[in-house]
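queue> pop job 88
queue> type: inverse folding (structure -> sequence)
queue> payload:
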């Protein structure tokens, strides 16, 4: 068994096919977002498996493909989050309260950038 967390994840899900090795795809996405995304996340998604649905439950998106495109998903999710009327809800459900910020910004280096969570595909 490998020492690192990433190594243990790779041991668990098997040898990666590495179909879409494209470091330039990450550079384009990170330049567009204005941030550097976590190395382990990029290694699992780009260098190893994505786009893929693992065991019918874990969906990994990829920044260099048309289907399950990570960049498109981040942009569309940030857009949807930006349209929420946060003032209409209960104060305890308003993220501005817990984050102690007056305004919420999404999809920029000064705001929150959505990252995909595992999704269950039916």
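queue> result:
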């Amino acid at each position: 068994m490998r020492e690192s967390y990433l190594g243990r994840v790779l041991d668990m899900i098997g040898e990666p096919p590495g179909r879409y090795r494209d470091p330039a795809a990450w550079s384009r996405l990170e330049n567009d977002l204005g941030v550097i995304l976590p190395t382990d996340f990029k290694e699992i998604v780009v260098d190893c498996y994505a786009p893929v649905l693992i065991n019918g439950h874990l969906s990994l998106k990829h920044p260099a493909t048309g289907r399950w495109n990570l960049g498109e998903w981040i942009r569309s999710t940030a857009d949807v989050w930006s349209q929420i009327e946060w003032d209409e809800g209960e104060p305890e459900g308003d993220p501005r309260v817990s984050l102690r910020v007056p305004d919420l910004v999404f999809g920029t280096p000064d705001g929150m950038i959505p990252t995909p969570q595992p999704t269950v595909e039916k």
